[in-house]
Design a protein that fits this description.
Layout lengths: L1 H30 L3 H13 L1 H12 L3 H19 L1 H6 L2 E2 L5 H18 L7 H31 L13 H33 L3 H26 L3 H26 L6 H25 L1 E2 L1 H19 L5
Antiparallel strand pairs: 1-2
Helix pairs in contact: 1-2, 1-8, 1-9, 2-8, 2-10, 3-4, 3-10, 4-9, 4-10, 4-11, 4-12, 6-10, 6-11, 7-10, 8-9, 9-10
């Protein structure tokens, strides 16, 4: 049964990722919105649903290691795997307008999480503060989308023509079915992985950082591969940056507001710093390298395998 659940989840993730990217890019084109803004909001929100459901459930069941590990591990996975694996197929460019700004926001949010957890916990007040920042972040992106559309419509010859574009009804269906498929696929994949992990006797925090984080990051990976294959680099990059931002602001913010977290020292003393270091490295790459080639992607993928081995072997415990 665990294997059947995993396979079913992976199929749903692949289909959902492709549908969500189709709908998101169609909406961006029709509304004259830069693809990276769609990736930072619609795609990132849709692919972050599994993390939110699992972290909430884990926190309410008194498993803070699983809840925090899911988010920290997912952010690590997003950088080392979700961004790197599509680049092994087609190099990903960081030239989309707004990419540098979004990367800096991701780094700032990651650093903020480190600061908030220096006292060893993420309490309800911390969670409410993160939710407030989430509302501000989403409002900023909505304002940026409206400004971009207004400017594009003011320039002659750049107005969007409905001919040749996906119908509005079809776009809505793509986005809704894609988000539902990703949520269901992420849950099925994680359920199967957890059942297998339980038989191996792996600790909750290690499960959250690796198996669950990888399972809940599969929607981002599916959406990223679909976007890269279609040469929508802005959506692929925006998906990762937006997901990492929303994982902290939305998932940990909402979770800590409902059920304050006391994560294990292993996460706060090691994994969260790995997440911060990778965020610094990604910002540097976005600012100076401007693209992610196959060699860099291969090194990042190997680094992720090493991280999984270290975490599951209990070296950081």
């Amino acid at each position: 049964m665990p294997i059947v659940t995993l396979v079913a989840g992976l199929i749903l993730l692949a289909l959902g990722g492709d549908l969500l990217v189709r709908g998101a890019v169609g909406a961006a084109t029709r509304l004259s919105i830069p693809p990276i803004i769609i990736g930072l909001t619609v795609v990132a929100l849709g692919t972050s649903l599994p993390e939110l459901l699992i972290s909430l459930e884990a926190a309410l069941r008194g498993a803070p290691g699983l809840a925090m590990g899911n988010v920290v591990g997912s952010n690590i996975t997003n950088i080392l795997a979700v961004l790197a694996l599509p680049a092994l197929i087609v190099p990903v460019a960081f030239t989309e307008s707004g990419t540098i700004r979004s990367a800096v926001i991701m780094l700032a949010v990651s650093a903020l999480l480190v600061l908030l957890t220096l006292d060893g916990r993420l309490d309800r007040l911390d969670g409410m503060f993160l939710v407030l920042l989430l509302v501000t972040y989403l409002a900023y992106n909505v304002a940026a989308a409206r400004r971009s559309r207004r400017l594009s419509l003011q320039e002659p010859g750049l107005e969007v023509r409905p001919e040749g574009l996906p119908a509005v009804r079809r776009i809505v269906v793509y986005v809704v079915l894609g988000a539902v498929g990703l949520a269901l696929g992420g849950n099925l994949t994680t359920d199967g992985a957890l059942e297998l992990a339980a038989k191996l006797g792996v600790a909750d925090s290690a499960v959250g950082l690796t198996i669950v984080a990888l399972g809940t990051s599969l929607p981002e990976l599916a959406a990223g591969i679909a976007a890269a294959a279609r040469r929508h680099d802005g959506v692929a990059v925006g998906n990762v940056l937006g997901s990492n931002i929303l994982n902290i602001l939305a998932i940990l913010g909402i979770t800590a507001t409902i059920a304050p977290l006391d994560p294990p020292a292993s996460i706060l003393g090691f994994d969260i710093w790995i997440m911060l270091a990778l965020s610094v490295g990604l910002v540097a790459m976005v600012m100076f390298r401007r693209r992610l080639g196959r060699i860099e992607a291969a090194l990042m993928s190997l680094a992720y395998v090493a991280y999984l081995y270290v975490t599951l072997s209990g070296t950081t415990a």
